[in-house]
Hints:
There is one protein chain. It contains seven helices and no strands. Helix 1 packs parallel to helix 4 (95-104). By secondary structure, it is mainly alpha-helical.
Amino acid sequence: MPRAASDFRNFAFDTTRITTSGRDVGAKVYPKLYAIENLIRVVIHAVLTAQLGPNWWNLAADPQLQKAVVKRKADYVNRPWHSTPGKHEVYYVYLSDLTKIMTNNSAQFVPHIPDIAQWTARLEQIRLPRNIVGHMNWLTKTDRNRIDLCLADVEQLVVKLAASPQLTFTVP
Length: 172
């Protein structure tokens, strides 16, 4: 009978506990973070394309971030046997970078998302838990609930924005 998932770090070493913990985090938490981050990428792309045009990245991304992304993209070009994050630069940035793009361009977001400051704060609340999951560790119930709520809120935002005739949602 499979063991109930619980944080393996609270028990004596047992490979089965580690595997069970990994399955739990991988199946129950990671897909939610994946959805949040990629929905936010699409929202950013839709809003900034509507406000600044298809070359929004060159206008909206901080020059230091643009340089970092050029280096990240080069790492993949130099190793073509690996998968790439995506075609557009927005796939080469982290959640913290996404919130900075939103904050630095808040004037562009306000016509579509009037409470943009609250949205960036909400995303910041899941940044550290996201990093914990990204480094394959266990979250508290509070952090899991925070991620659940954030996903539900982001999904509602996308539904609301998708109904706007001023925005077109496309995968960048």
